[in-house]
Design goal:
Blueprint: E1 6-12, H1 20-31, E2 36-40, H2 52-57, H3 62-73, E3 76-80, H4 90-100, E4 111-117, H5 125-137, E5 141-142, E6 148-150, H6 167-187
Parallel strand pairs: 1-2, 1-3, 3-4, 4-5, 4-6
Helix pairs in contact: 3-4
Bound molecules: flavin mononucleotide.
Residues 14, 16, 19-21, 82-86, 117-120 line the site of flavin mononucleotide.
């Protein structure tokens, strides 16, 4: 591990207060390897629906610019998000679409990792491959393995305390974060 702290920002794809994905995101700092800091990204909840007329008229909303700047400044980006209708939640996709339009778009060459928690048994696998596809177009560097699919999430996360109770899930998340730290370090200096 290099002596520099790896600064990772985390984008939660669910906006609801009781979100299981938000609970997972909140657990990440405690599961990260030494030398990795994980903080929540600036919110996308106030982004308008993407409209090219807004972009060319009044320009990028301040909240879009703020998220884009945070992504550009981070060493890595973690998505923790549910799957909606077998794909990326609309709000999150809208956020990616807005950010992708900012000049010098910030996902280019950016290490990215994905986690998902869903009520269904597959844990968001279909969404993850759609998000990976969007990241390919944006030239992000998305971590391949380990993958984190938290299926049947209400049985693995205690909604009252917000704790991940399933220790196998905790172990997988630790492994992914350690792999993400190595992935970021290996790619630093390549762009
Ligand atoms: C619009 C919508 C679509 C959903 N589609 C899926 C789906 O395709 N696959 C799945 O496993 N769960 C699906 N769910 C259930 C979510 O996985 C579940 O509500 C989950 O708790 C949402 O994440 P959150 O707790 O972080 O908000 C859907 C939920 C909503 C609201």
């Amino acid at each position: 591990m290099a002596d520099k702290t790896l600064n990772v920002i985390c984008i939660c794809g669910s906006l609801r207060k009781g979100s299981y994905n938000r609970m997972v995101m909140n657990a990440l700092p405690g599961l990260a390897p030494a030398g990795m800091s994980i903080k929540e990204a600036p919110p996308f909840s106030e982004f308008p629906l993407y409209n090219a007329d807004t972009e060319t008229g009044s320009g990028f909303p301040a909240a879009v610019q703020k998220l884009a700047d945070a992504i550009r400044a981070a060493d890595g980006v973690m998505f923790v998000t549910p799957e909606y209708n077998f794909s990326i939640p609309g709000g999150l996709k809208n956020a990616v679409d807005w950010v992708s339009r900012v000049p010098n778009q910030p996902f280019a060459s950016k290490p990215v990792a994905i986690q998902s928690a869903t009520g269904g048994p597959l844990g968001g696998g279909r969404m993850q491959y759609d998000l990976r596809r969007a990241m390919i177009f944006l030239d992000a560097l998305t971590l391949n393995k380990p993958e984190i699919f938290i299926g049947n999430c209400s049985q693995r996360i205690d909604a009252k305390t917000g704790q991940i109770t399933d220790q196998q899930t905790v172990g997988f998340i630790r492994q992914q974060l350690a792999a993400f730290a190595r992935f970021i370090e290996q790619r630093s200096g390549q762009h």
